[in-house]
Structure formats: C-alpha cells, structure tokens
Known about the structure:
The complex is a heterodimer.
Chain A: H1 3-24, E1 37-43, H2 48-57, E2 61-67, H3 71-84, E3 91-92, H4 98-103, H5 111-114, E4 130-131, E5 134-135, E6 137-141, E7 145-150, H6 151-156, H7 165-175, E8 183-184, H8 191-199, E9 205-208, E10 211-214, H9 219-233, E11 237-238, H10 245-252, E12 259-263, H11 264-273, E13 281-284, E14 297-298, E15 302-305, H12 313-325, H13 327-331, H14 354-357, H15 367-379, E16 381-382, H16 391-406, H17 412-429
Parallel strand pairs in A: 1-2, 1-3, 8-11, 14-16
Antiparallel strand pairs in A: 4-5, 6-15, 7-12, 7-13, 9-10
Helix pairs in contact in A: 8-9, 16-17
Chain B: H1 2-6, H2 21-38, H3 41-62, E1 64-67, E2 77-80, H4 84-90, H5 93-126, H6 129-144, H7 147-158, H8 165-170, H9 184-209, H10 213-221, H11 226-237, H12 239-254, H13 258-266, H14 277-288, H15 291-316
Antiparallel strand pairs in B: 1-2
Amino acid sequence: MPTTSRRAVLAGLALCLAVTTAACSSDTDKNASSGPVEIEYWAWAPAQPVVDKFNATHTDIKIKFVKQADLPTTATGLRNAVAAGSAIPCLVQNFGDVPALLAEGLLADVTDYVKPAESKFKPASLVGAQVQGKYYGIPTGTGPTFMMINRAVYDKYDVPVPKTWDDVIAAGKALKPHGVQVMNLAGEDPSTLVNLVTQAGGTWYSVQNDSWKVDFLSPESVAAANILQQLVDNGLVANQTYQDRPALIAYFDEGKMVSLPTSTWQLTNYELHFKKTIGDWEPIDLPQFAGATKFATPAHGNAMLVPKGCQHPKEASEVGIWMNTTKDGVDATYDKTTGSYAWPGAMPDPSPWIDAAVPQKLFGSHRTEAKPVIIKASESGVDNWLVGPNYTGVFKELQDQWAQAVTKKITFRQLLENMQKFTVDDLKAKGISVAN
Amino acid sequence: MSLELKQKPLTTPPAERAGDVRFSGGRWRRTVALKGASFTMPFFAGFVVFTVVPVIMALSKSLYTAKSSGLGFGAKTVTFSGFENFDRALHDAKFWGSLWRVALFAIVVIPLIQFTSLVLALLLDSVRRRVAGKLRIAMLVPYMSPGIVATLIWIYLYSPDVGPLTPFFKLFGIDANFYSSELIWVSVGNLMAWGSIGFNMLIVYGALQAVPRDIFDSARVDGASEWRIAWSIKVPYVRRSLVLVSILGIIGTLQIFSEPLLFRSMTPETVTKDFTPIMTIYNQAFAVGDFNYAAALSIVLALVVGLVSAIFYKLTNKAPT
C-alpha cells in the first residue's frame, strides 16, 4: 500500500476528530455588552404575539421566544440545560409542580422580585409559585373549575341537575338503564381525585417541624375516594382516554356521557369539534360535597418558571409579571381562530375576558348562564394543596394506581393506602425527613 | 521461483526472504494490518464515544447514591455507596416482574417471528428471481418505516373507537379489544412481527442464495421432494443466519421500549409505567430522578441480556455447517 493512501487515511481521521471537537466547542457569550437585556423564553404555547407586544412596548428588556415542541421536550431541554450549566433560558412555561421542580434543582429564588409585586396578583394564585414562603416562579393561577352537562339528555330522562357529588351518583344511577354514563374517568388521569381532594380543602403533603407529613388517608381524601368508588362500583362512568382526542371528542359528542368537570381553556375545543350535541350543553356550578359549609372549587395555582442559572432573574420576573398581570399581556394572548384569550388566572379581576372565553354555540340557550358560573367558580377557588419534593415520581405511581382503581382491580381506599406507603418509603429512600 | 519473488519484496511472503525474517516480516504485516484496521476507525470512534464512554459513566454512576436532606429542597449530597444500588436492583420486584413479563413474551414471539421469516424466505427462494425481487421489496417496507411511525400506525389501527380493525372483527362476531390486558401482548407481538419479519426474511433469504444449487439438482436426481430439500438441505444451511436473527430478536425484545410506551398512552390501565425493564429504568431516571439507581438497573439488564444471548448462542451454534 503506497504511503499516500496512509496519509489520506490519517488526514481523514484528523478531519473527523476536528469536526467532532468543533461541534462541542461553540460556547456562547451573549448579553455581555450593554443595551437591552435579552430574556430567553421557552414555551410550547403559541406565545409569539405576547412576545411581540412586550418587545414593542419595552426598550430595556427584549424577549427572545424559543418555541418548544411540547411539554416533555421542554422538560427534558431544561433539565439538560441546567445540568450543562449553559444556554439556560430565563423564563419557561410551567411543566410541573414548583416544589418538585425545586427539589430537582431546576428553579431560581425570585422572592426579591416577585414579593414587591404581590398586590398585582389575585391572592389565591400566589401559593402555587411558593415553597416555604419563597417564590420560585411567577404565579399564573389557574382556570376556574365548573361543570358542563348535556342538559338535553338530562331533561330527556327527567334527571335533575346535580348540585352535590351525591346527586351526580344518583343521576348516574338514573341514566345507566338508558345506556348513558354520567362521567368519564380517563385511565391515565388521576386529576379527578386530586381535584376532589383539593376541593374538600385537603392535601397529601404538609410540613411539620421541618419534616414532611404525608397523609393520603385524611378525611378529605377518604371522602373523595368514596365518591369515586361509588361511581366505579355502580358502573356509572366511562374510561375514555384523553390521549386519543378524536375518539374522545366523538364519544363526548354521542350523548352517551353527560357531565364533564371542565375549565375555560377546554371550551373552544368542544365548540370546534362537537357536531351532534352542540347547543345541548349547560354550564353549571361544580357539584359540592354533601354537607359542605362553603361553596368551593379546586384552584391549585401554578407558576411560570425562572430556571436556576438564569443570568437575569430580575428582568425575567419583570417579564413574567407583565405577562400575567397587565391588560396588555393578557390581551396579546388573543387567538383569532377561537376568539378567546388565555385564561388570566393570576388577574385579580378576570371579568373583562370572560365573555370571550364563552363560546357562541356550545351552550345554546344556556350561554348567558356561563358568565355567573365562571365568576362564581373563579371567586371560590381554594388551594390548600401542597406537593412534596418527590411528587413527579409519586404522580407516576398515582397514575398506575388510579388505572387499577378505575378498572376495579383495587379499591380507591387501597389506592390511598398504597400511595401512603409508596410516598413515605420514597421520601425516606431519598434521605428526606418524614414525620410519619 | 523464489528468485523471481525476491525481486518484489513488498509482496513477498516474509518467510521467503533472507536476513532478519522475523523483524521485517512482522513489521510488514503490522503495517498492512494497521492500514486495514484504520478503515474501521470511524466506527470505533463512534463506538467509543457513544457506547464505551456511556457504559463507563453508567458503571461509575451506579456506585454512587444521591441523597437529599431535610425537606428535600437543598442540594443533594452524592456519596459512594458501593454495590448498594445493585443490591436494591436485585430485590426490586417491579423490575424483575417486568423482566419476566418481557421474557415470557420473547419466548412466544421470537420463535413465531423466526418461523414465519424462514417460511417466507423458503417460499421466496422457490419462486423465480424477478418475482422474488418484487416480493422482497414489499416485505421490507414495514422494516423501512421507523419503529415510532409503525407504532403510531398500529395504534390507530387498533383503536377500538376510530380504528378499522374492531369493526372488522365484529363482522365475524368477535369482540376484539386490542388494548385489553388479555390482548395487549398479542397486539405488541403483531406489531413487532410486522416490523421485523421483512428484515429477518432478507437475512435468511441471503443465506439461502449462497447454498450451492447443484446440491439441489443431485437431491432431485436422488428423488428428494421439494419439501425434503427444504427441510434437509436448505434449513440446515441457514441455521447460522437463523441464530443471528434470533439473537438480535432476543436483544431487541428484552429491551422493548418505544412500542409499549406509546401503547401506554392509549391504555394506561394495562401498560403500567413499569411494564418493561427499560420502561422501569426510564421511569427511575426521568420521573423519580434517580440516575444512579437507573444506571445500576441498566447494567443489570445488560448483563441479563448478554447472558441470555450467550446461552442461546452456545446451545444453538455448536453443530457444524
């Protein structure tokens, strides 16, 4: 073999190595010079109009919007960026509970910047962005929870509109002989349980003397479990998955499932896709626990995230506060195709945006009832819900347990007992103090 | 002859040359060998960066444990814990449960896939070459579509609400729910077979093409039927290829991940988060956030897969061909 070919091989190898090294050494060093501070914002929601509005009205801060594919890729991307310690964004759309993300080491303390602005937020929205009294994100609040029922079917079988969860069970029993299910409990989504516990004013985690107290068997949880158990045992619910959207919408639209706990952000989807039952639905107050003294809806708030390692937490907080608490910020979320805005969950008074949130045809002659129902739901939100540092893993386990409970393989009581054990064991295995 | 050869030293076998035979011959061989080996460098560079380095990193990670303290919000302390993670892995009922579940599935599905591939390859071998070429491409199409795409296609086909299969089976009075716990492995197995039979068949068919044709002629002269030729000549000839595709099948099946993960979105009641070993590992790493334990589980899984493949190879590859 002549020497030239050996040289060619070596040159090729050298080139290969050079290319690989070059790919790894593209460190950036932006924002070092003067001029407006650039805030990188990651979201999978269509946030470009909001970003444009902000950039048009501000000179000292500019947002650079980086559109993300979806929730899981945003989460993975942020975890990688924080672990690498470079190219960390300064604002990220929420993808989990603040305490769990903080325990993962993903969040920055922004108390100094958010606390002075507390008065701009709806008071109930603040807790969701806090851990132990400190802020690790910008409060975004949450949408109002109410129920929509297929009134035409309720009337057809002469079933009264439910006011309590016991009424829902009774309605389910009355509708079952007609082949109609009163509710849907998707096998992958334990949020119905979480929402019931929250509505009852309960929580699974609390802090006692610098230790976690885990209580899946509190009276609130047991009351919630009892309602679900009756719905499942009597065969009153469907288990349609939320993952197969076309199938789900088609099923809801058949008139075979007639009550849906819902929120404003879901309405336009139903409006666009319901064909047969459009106009038959009625918004009603969320059913209450029998004997509850005060009307309550679950309102566990959340936060826009400021990641650890963000170079400009002050400016990032300013941007986040503008997005969530100013008229300009909310107005810019206007969506032409649906004619609605992103729900202003952190605004003390959301009423200017309610009309646009109610679709034109979905509720038919009941449309006027929507506004008072939404206002009532928004004002009566309770949030005692607190999650612990291991909630991401706990939620996955809860999904598995929930799937078994809705398919009658275990009871909801057993679900709570299993979760109690799992959560305590998991906290202990991680070296975290548990009071139990 | 030897004189003539001495005039071309580069191509002369070293033993033929005078003087320091050992040294110069060794060097010559080594140079040629190195030149040849250098062509594998791009592969080995990738192998080192994407396989060897991660394995070493996983090994080192698996020996440590990250612990929080207090309420769990502070920084974690990472301490050397020796084989603690492995001890935990050996007693992890969910992990071993998932491994047995997949092993049982593999025992059923791999022989079925290999048998079907063999039959198809034999059929292909018995038709004319031009026809075989066309059929071969058709059978390879499923293999060409990426696993995720294939799974998405089948998720739609299986969907009891919008898919065509459920109404089709209803025509015959069969109430088939492909996502029920009874049928879920059949559904996954069918998807795997659909995706892999084309490739396996191609390997086996390739081996069949290499069988000297005159053996068939002499067999025919001796009065052997086509069945007899297939069973007594063709099958023994392709044994090594069958062993190869079976080992690839074992490795792939024990590490099955994307198919059940996507099925989980449709039927979380059946496909739990710990359904297969890799799903358990994935959950530990990315939901629980315990990379150290996930690394230990990965190593245990790799050892099990390696062991099973080695045993299978020993058992099936001893007969001479």
